[in-house]
């Protein structure tokens, strides 16, 4: 399966955070690589969306829809303050 870039989850992130998030910078919890969400590799065919670090392939983010509302697990991605 070919990954998409982080722009593929822009709508889900906007729904959850209420603002444009693809330019937000974060750090991979495993390897420490930093970059914008738009650079993450996104897979849409899982039970939800899975975003992985482009450097080490660590799962950085999981997005699922529960009763029509987006739920996001950011355990593998630490957002940097703006």
Give structural notes.
- This protein has one helix and eight strands; from the N terminus they run βαβββββββ.
- It is mainly β.
- The longest helix is centred in the first third of the chain and has 8 residues.
- The mean pLDDT is 94.
Outline of the structure:
The chain is mainly β and 82 residues long. It is 10% helix and 44% strand. The strands form two sheets. Strands 1-4-5-6-7 form a five-stranded antiparallel beta sheet, with helices on one face. The chain has a three-stranded antiparallel beta sheet with strand order 3-2-8, with no helix packed on it.
**Whole-angstrom Rg:** 12 Å
- Count the strands? 8
Beta content comes to 35-45%
Low-confidence stretches: none
Tally of contiguous helical segments: 1
The assigned structural class equals mainly beta
Strand arrangement across the biggest beta sheet: 1-4-5-6-7
Mean pLDDT: 94
Largest sheet: 5 strands, antiparallel
Return the string of H and E elements.
EHEEEEEEE
Shape: globular
- How far apart lie the N and C ends? 34 Å
Roughly what percent helix? under 10%
């Amino acid at each position: 399966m070919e990954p998409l870039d982080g722009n593929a989850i822009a709508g889900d992130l906007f729904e959850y955070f209420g603002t444009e998030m693809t330019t937000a910078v974060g750090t991979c919890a495993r390897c420490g690589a930093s970059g914008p969400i738009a650079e993450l590799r996104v897979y849409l065919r899982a039970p939800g969306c899975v975003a992985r670090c482009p450097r080490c392939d660590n799962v950085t983010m999981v997005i699922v829809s529960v009763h029509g509302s987006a739920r996001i697990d950011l355990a593998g991605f630490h957002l940097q303050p703006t």
